[in-house]
Amino acid sequence: MVVIEVPEVNYTDYSNRQLAAVPLAFLVLALAIIGGWVVATGAPANMGLEFTGGVELRVAADGGDVEQQVQTAFDREPDSVRTILSDDVDEGRVVVVTFQATENDPEGFASNLQDQADAAGFTTLAVDQVSASFASDTARTALFGVALAFLGMSVLVFALFRTFVPSLAVVASAFSDLVIPIAAMNLLGIEMTLGTIAALLMIIGYSVDSDILLNDSVLRRTGEFYESVSRAMRTGVTMTLTSIAAMVVMAIVASVFGVGLLRDIGIILSIGLCADLMNTYLLNVSLLRWYKFEGVAR
Amino acid sequence: MLEPIKENWRILLLVVVVLGSTVALFGPGFGPEPAPGENASEAQQGITNLQYGLDLAGGTRVRAPLSGYTATDVALGGESPEAVADAVAAELDNASTRNVGVVPDESAVEVTDPTVTESQFRAAMDAAGYEYGGIRSGVTQETRDETMNVIQGKINEAGLSGGSVQQVQSITGEYFILVEVPGQGRQEVIDLLEERGTVRIDIAYTDGNGTAVQEGALIQGDFDEIGTATQSDRGPGAYVPVTVRNSDDDGQSPAHAFQDAVAQRGFPDAYETQADQCGYNSETGEIEEVNGDRNPCLLLVVDGEVINSFGMDSGLADDMGTGSWAETGRFRLTTGEFAEAQQISLNLRAGALPADLDISGEGTSSSISASQGENFRTYSLIIGVLSVFAVAGMVFLRYREPRVALPMIVTALAEVYTLLGFAALLGYPLELAVIAGFIAVVGTGVDDLVIIADQVMSEGDVSSRTVFDSRFRQAFWVIGAAAATTIIAMSPLMVLSLGDLSGFAIFTVLGVLIGVLITRPAYGDILRRLLTVR
């Protein structure tokens, strides 16, 4: 039977620079991807309907090539058409049709589209309409919320440890834990929605746990540095692996069932938690070691 | 006797909380508020008292601002609101006094007709000669409150349980009305909100060879009491019992006016026996001969369309003739079909919204079919259970010791169970985002229990109680710090208007609080009992 044993890492073999290089490389790569997205699309991520505005219809048809039928059913060309699995219909196929909001959407735009869908013989399962002005407002509010959450977390961490470098280490790895999943979302084509924002906030909560545990063990307990780190690691890696297990299962089961929101949250958290393992035990440890052996002495 | 209780109070507290949650989840009296005409068991969704949001039950959410403009800080100069409204309305070609509201408490004047533009309103305010601070889009607080009441009334009247309406403010300060109706499609909800059904009674009478109509013999505001739609006991058809207001501050009351009008149009003479019938033909708009007479008729007009025409019971006509009817003012509006009667009752009671909801312009709406909602409910249950199994599996693999791992899993489950109890108690509808919050709670909960277990069992066996307690306290510092960061990170979302996200944040914070205050200390006690040698 498999036994989970958290391996002992021999940190003395590597210099601080070497340890920090890997997570920093990932961080730079992630920032480059996000920067590239801003240049190419004008937004840091694939914004979902809630942030762009528009109309999204979920329709089902009796058979045939539904996607093909959808292309011709509406008098305006849809901005995106994708098929998802669903139990709702016998064929098991539901098509999500998205129309981005434009300046001159006529009155009753969503109702018109629904009528057109009905006329083409589709069954409309869900209709979402978001106005462009409301969407930009939501985007601003969400950004503000995430920024405020991050800021609040940072202030609290500084208040808890009252030393600059270890607190900075926590905040820096939390930042990286947020940025890497966003870059991964772009590459995997996951849209930024309110649900995925929730997942990003969960990462703030989860990732800080193991960082605080590490800092507590090194700074507030007695014992030699490497011993403290390996003690914190034993607990911390178990914690993170447990969470990753839950999230991977959630992502897999949710994608089987076609519950998009839970699948996305599962994927994002799995990536975020993997990033957290790397950031905590490479970036944070190297910063702490520098602080313990060189920073304090200065 | 008291000693065991004192020793184990943390565990006992957990047991009490779990029992309390069971009561909230399954006990009668904690279920969803039933809509009028619905009993408690009909309002319940499934075997528990839990309520489900739109994601999990299907339904429609509409979020829209009220259209109109408001002039703020208006110098009303002590004039009566009516006079100000008249003066402003007189300067607007496309709005009547009904569309201009004056709220002295807020020193505000508003226009609620969607066709009036901002510059037209500005010009009208200038022309009417009132000084004002500025013009903003949207309507006054008073109108928003009133609109909410009317919408709530419409939802209740239509018998939609679980429907809710609230005001939300966006980050830019704009107000929105948020309406959520489970189990209804988008179009039905919008129809319900947008219909401005006006009901009135006209009198059709013969004028020479033709037919003349006296419009508005009774209008919406004349009714004092409006009964619920009732199936007629004789024959088909239904009616709405109403009472017409028979008092008035100045001049004639609506009941007396109506009575006079009926008498003047010759109803008492026309309706003397059962054979006297109304012969109004709604297609031609003419009164036709029935049994040799062309009798006057009452017309029930909804939204300008004649829904039904009827004559009058001879007894009632007599009372009107002698002038005794107005003392009670009781009257029945009859229709051909029950559904029509229901609609009329609804229109009379709830009536029109004080201002239009701008759904197609600035609004947002979403709707999910009931079958999809139901599927999502099953799926999220399965997803949640499997995630918990994954966590349990990892914990067993790591500790290989049921004494440590089993209480851990039981404690984490108790945490989720308690949260569900809270959701039932608060009547908070569960949504997908809340389910995600629950799974997050299991995750952080187990994380913290791992910290406790590792801390307590580090550095060899725990032999004495003092050793255990000091290690437990050390572990709790980390847990407290982690909980505080989570709460701080989530708190902005609880208050920002971000739809689903606030539910997620509320339940994550609630879960963390329950964890830190109740379940994690209890796990410490359980572990102590199992590990320390007494």
Automatic annotation (TrEMBL), chain A:
Q: What is this protein called?
A: Protein-export membrane protein SecF
Keyword NADP on entry: no
Where is each Protein export membrane protein SecD/SecF C-terminal domain found?
Answer: 122-292
The UniProt entry lists membrane topology as: Multi-pass membrane protein
GO terms (BP aspect): intracellular protein transmembrane transport; protein targeting
Which cellular compartments is it found in?
Cell membrane
Q: Which family does it belong to?
A: Belongs to the SecD/SecF family. SecF subfamily.
From TrEMBL, chain B:
Asked if Transport is a keyword of the record, the answer is yes
Its chief place of residence is: membrane
Q: What is the lineage of its organism?
A: Archaea, Methanobacteriati, Methanobacteriota, Stenosarchaea group, Halobacteria
Any one Gene Ontology biological process term?
intracellular protein transmembrane transport
Q: Which residues form the Protein export membrane protein SecD/SecF C-terminal domain?
A: 366-517
Designated gene of the protein: secD
User: Under which name does UniProt file this protein?
Assistant: Protein-export membrane protein SecD
> What keywords appear on the UniProt entry?
Cell membrane, Membrane, Protein transport, Translocation, Transmembrane, Transmembrane helix, Transport
**PANTHER family (UniProt xref):** PROTEIN TRANSLOCASE SUBUNIT SECD, PROTEIN-EXPORT MEMBRANE PROTEIN SEC
Transmembrane portions of the chain? 12-31, 376-397, 404-426, 432-453, 474-495, 501-519
Subunit description: Part of the protein translocation apparatus. Forms a complex with SecF.
User: Organism, per UniProt?
Assistant: Halorubrum distributum JCM 9100
Where is it located?
Cell membrane
- Keyword Protein transport assigned to the entry: answer is yes
- GO CC entries: plasma membrane
